[in-house]
């Protein structure tokens, strides 16, 4: 997600529009990518123009935008090694558009097109790479051979920028705040609509007495007991009801009493 702390909000807004335009309708031979963390660093892959020593090569470059952009021009650097009079060995680009001819009304599209045109028509008179500039003026064939050699070694096709990445990044600038609001609403809805805890199926119900001040707990779970004769006795507390097993025990006890009396007489 883009933070863009290095640029003022009005510049970020303008850049977002231009980057989206470059992504949807890129200039010929140029593909733009964006740094997700900072829009002040713009990447571009430039295809070597046909009929030049840079043909079939793909050169990656970057533009660095200062805090006072567009009042001051961006700085351009080639990240891919290239043998060219106007590109220094450290990758710095020397072109008038990025120096004395800069105008705040010029956009990124114009800058990138000028850089690609520099591969078609170098300016050896203002060379940063003196060896390349001198060779171009004195022996073009030797210059072209060196340039093709660099192109074949270093300017191999690069991994393509993710499709739609610029649109996603520019959109993120506008939706971050709304996403935060939506998350807050969801949290409130979750709290207000939280499900109440369901009663446990093992809970014991309570019934109020006539006075209403005291409550008497009654278990509806039947209690199982075992009688002397092995007969199961089933009862429900508070009802005083038991099955026939209890009656049988009392009858057996009455039969035993006369026998004990007879034994005492003997």
From TrEMBL:
Residues annotated as domain UBC core: 10-156
Keywords: ATP-binding, Nucleotide-binding, Transferase, Ubl conjugation pathway
Chain segments carrying region Disordered: 243-266
EC number: 2.3.2.23
Gene Ontology MF term list: ATP binding; ubiquitin conjugating enzyme activity
Classification via InterPro entries: Ub_conjugating_enzyme, UBC, UBQ-conjugating_AS, UBQ-conjugating_enzyme/RWD
Catalytic residues of the enzyme: 94 (glycyl thioester intermediate)
Listed Basic and acidic residues bias regions: 243-255
Bias (Basic residues): 256-266
Pfam short name (any one): UQ_con
Family recorded in the similarity comment: Belongs to the ubiquitin-conjugating enzyme family.
PANTHER family (UniProt xref): UBIQUITIN-CONJUGATING ENZYME E2 (PTHR24067)
Protein name, entry field: E2 ubiquitin-conjugating enzyme
